[in-house]
Amino acid sequence: QVQLVESGGGLVQAGGSLRLSCAASGRTFSSYYMGWFRQPPGKERETVAVISLSGVRRYYADSVKGRFTIFRMNAKNTMYLQMNSLKPEDTAVYYCAADTNEENIRLLRGAYWGQGTQVTVSS
Question: Which of 56, 86, 31 is nearest to 94 (CA)?
Fold first, then answer.
């Protein structure tokens, strides 16, 4: 079993930056594909970014390309999402997820999920 805990959310003005962290425990971190997802108010959950086991291959939603960066530090059992040039549309609860199957992550079907961290971007 894997436990995931997100942190780093908060309130920022448009154009600002935040770095989210996802700390994992319970299994070998490098054995899991990881991803970031978000759920804006009144909307359904969506994929933000996905990262491979080694961190070399990364996928981003079109809405965040060029602004967000996903990376992982396997030795620290932690994954990150660096968010720059934030927009009010980025306001959401952000979740991290893990799975040994990359397709499951891409389909928002990760085996393990964190509790989420709130990101609010003001105009």
Answer: 86
